[in-house]
Design brief:
Helix content is about 70%, strand content about 0%.
């Protein structure tokens, strides 16, 4: 009931909710069909097949089903919290999804598409959460907010599969929703609960995202509560973080917080070479190495794949999507509404967090296919403000009853 009220109060008509949810389900069906026919050994169907083992365990030995999730088969036991391979915490991401799927299998009997429908009821909440934020910031730009929050191709596609991308996307939307309205209006018990639960879910599925959310959230809160100019607040917080890293590297070189990023890159480089593999410089756990690799990270994260690259069966479509976003950015810069020049604190939050995450993705992941999938869940935070700030000439405006 709480989820239904959350969707009903989004500002969308019942008709539009039904249309957008139907599009979401069609995207889930397309992802399931394409991944099954063009890449049999994929995470989506692999998780669904493996979930039947968990379902049988639930039916035959429920005690073990609820307790074996705490078992670690590794020598380091529960160490390696940020590792991408060979870690209890890395396995936990998929194990949680498998446990959830086991309950879904009670009704679906292991049917992928029924399980996908159940999962996408959660996934749709992420889209609605982002929409409710942006329609509050841009109340007269409903169509653009719908496009940015519900219909971005790569976001719609990759957040519709039975995978941690769907869970992370939804929890990121809930986190942003609770943070935004909790700070702008008031922090109710429901918003505290949503913020805490979404933070825990993000920590367990993609822990480095929560790390990146912390400075952006602090800067957003300072800007609103202290009524400081948003750009100044964000520059102050991120400059302070950089200075702390610099001082720590000089005074305590044995402690290497940047090793988290370099180790994740090493874990990805140890994986088999992918069809869309990119030449990637090795990252050292130092600020010097980090800044030296930033131009390549920008290229990989924001610009790849190029349209002429052979980076997989469907890479050309994602390359065209990137070109479209670049053109929209240029359009916004030259045809921006004068009233939109007053920077909103949450837009600073969205841009700062998204740019950081896409740069980190470009730093650590050495193939463009995975980069496209990883960054897709952040795109609504970056593309929706661009769409809502574009000035459309009156002669080409289309009036649609939303």
């Amino acid at each position: 009931m709480c989820r239904l009220n959350f969707v009903r109060h989004s500002g969308l008509s019942n008709k539009n909710i039904l249309i957008l949810f139907s599009i979401k389900i069609l995207a889930a069906i397309a992802l399931g069909w394409l991944s099954n026919h063009f890449s049999y050994y994929n995470d989506y169907w692999g998780l669904n097949r493996e979930s039947m083992n968990e379902y049988n365990l639930l039916m035959n030995n429920p005690r073990k089903f609820f307790t074996d999730i705490t078992y670690s088969p590794y020598e380091n036991a529960y160490g390696g919290f940020f590792n991408s391979v060979g870690s209890y915490w890395n396995d936990l991401k998929n194990n949680i999804i498998l446990k959830i799927l086991a309950f879904c299998n009670i009704f679906s009997r292991g049917n992928y598409y029924i399980n996908s429908l159940i999962f996408n009821c959660l996934g749709f909440l992420g889209h609605v959460a982002f929409f409710r934020i942006f329609i509050h910031i841009y109340p007269t730009k409903k169509l653009m907010a719908i496009i940015g929050c519900f219909l971005l191709p790569s976001t719609l596609y990759f957040s519709s599969g039975i995978h941690k991308d769907l869970v992370t996307f939804s929890m990121l939307g809930i986190f942003c929703y609770c943070l935004y309205f909790g700070v702008e209006q008031r922090m109710t018990i429901k918003r505290w609960i949503g913020l805490i639960l979404s933070s825990i879910a993000i920590l367990l599925t993609r822990n480095f995202i929560l790390v990146a959310l912390i400075p952006a959230s602090v800067a957003f809160i300072i800007s609103i509560k202290k009524q400081w100019p948003p750009v100044r607040s964000f520059l102050l917080v991120y400059a302070t973080g950089f200075l702390l890293l610099l001082v720590q590297q000089i005074t305590l070189p044995s402690i290497q917080p940047l090793k988290i990023i370099s180790q994740k890159q090493a874990d990805f480089l140890d994986l088999p070479v992918a069809a869309s593999q990119l030449t990637t410089y090795k990252l050292e756990p130092t600020l010097g190495s980090l800044f030296q690799n930033l131009p390549q990270a920008f290229n990989h994260g924001f610009l790849r794949p190029y349209i002429w690259e052979n980076a997989g069966k469907f890479a050309v479509f994602f390359a065209l999507e990137i070109i479209l976003y670049i053109l929209l950015l240029c359009w916004m810069l030259f045809k921006r509404y004068p009233s939109s020049r007053n920077t909103n604190a949450f837009i600073c939050f969205a841009v700062a967090f998204t740019v950081m995450m896409i740069l980190v993705t470009g730093l650590i992941i050495p193939n463009s296919s995975s980069i496209i999938r990883y960054k897709s869940i952040y795109l609504p935070l970056l593309i929706t403000p661009i769409l809502c700030n574009i000035r459309i000439p009156n002669r080409v405006k289309i009036h649609i009853n939303l």
